[in-house]
Amino acid sequence: MNKGQNIPVLEARNLSVSFRMYDGTFKQKELRVISDLSIQVFSGEILAIAGSSGSGKSLLASAILGILPRTAAVRGELRYHGQTLTPKLQKQLRGTKIALVPQSVDFLDPLMRAGAQADGHRKPYPTQKRRRLFARFGLPDDTERCYPFQLSGGMARRVLVSTALLADAQLMIADEPTPGMSLGQALEVLKVFREMADEGKAVILITHDIDLAFAFADRIAVLYAGTIVETASAQDFQAGPDALRHPYSRALWRALPQNDFEPIAGVQPYAGNLPKGCLFAPRCSQSTPKCTQETPPVRTLRGGEVRCFAAE
Description:
Elements: E1 10-22, E2 28-41, E3 46-50, H1 57-65, E4 72-80, E5 83-84, H2 87-93, E6 98-101, H3 114-119, H4 127-136, H5 153-165, E7 171-175, H6 183-198, E8 202-207, H7 210-216, E9 219-224, E10 227-233, H8 234-239, H9 247-254, H10 289-293, E11 298-301, E12 304-307
Parallel strand pairs: 3-8, 3-9, 6-7, 7-8
Antiparallel strand pairs: 1-2, 1-4, 4-5, 9-10, 10-12, 11-12
């Protein structure tokens, strides 16, 4: 990947996503789930977004595509090739220039056979290309005639991946695309995403499985409590905690199976009860009074970006 002076395929700047809710009475309140989030993904790269459950990864995908419910409010900037992503443009690009591999297999239509569903409304119908994808992902020949209820979870996910790939989009957003697959099947899916990026397209890979992301991603953005705390090269994560910048990124590294599942105290804060200042401060061994009072800005450090006062 060579970013050079290229305009990002997708850029989110100071993005926030909130939901209007009632507090148990008739009083309405705002629940902010994503706060001041900024990312860029360029042609020719895979940007992996990693973080624990509830950190806002899937909501970010929905915000980019414009498929959040009406109770959601989106603030900040979203740009596609430098053009503001308005609701009208999101609708035009969705499923054509921007494709989604959704996390839930419930996105499959229960009344359509897998083959017809993957082909969609595209003309001419991409039957041969779809059959090649099904075969590459290890799906049996009769998969195209099956309804979703006849597929295992892993098979359904491979059908979802195939459906998104047939869009031939410039930006692929893959939201946890590999659960339920064998290691070989997951690796084959990620190889296809790598091939997409090598052809000049862009991929956002949302994943819990940082190990797999290491091998295929160019950069990894770490999401915590609805904001990006660090963006670093995949090589930095492979090198170990000393190459990383944020305490939470180092904690994620140490929590990997090969690194002894070392936990840290505390839990990720709930969106309705976010602490003042740095969101990670209550769990951070490097926290100072400043961290609990002020929100650290994003700054460039050692070739990456970090949101932390103490990072060196």
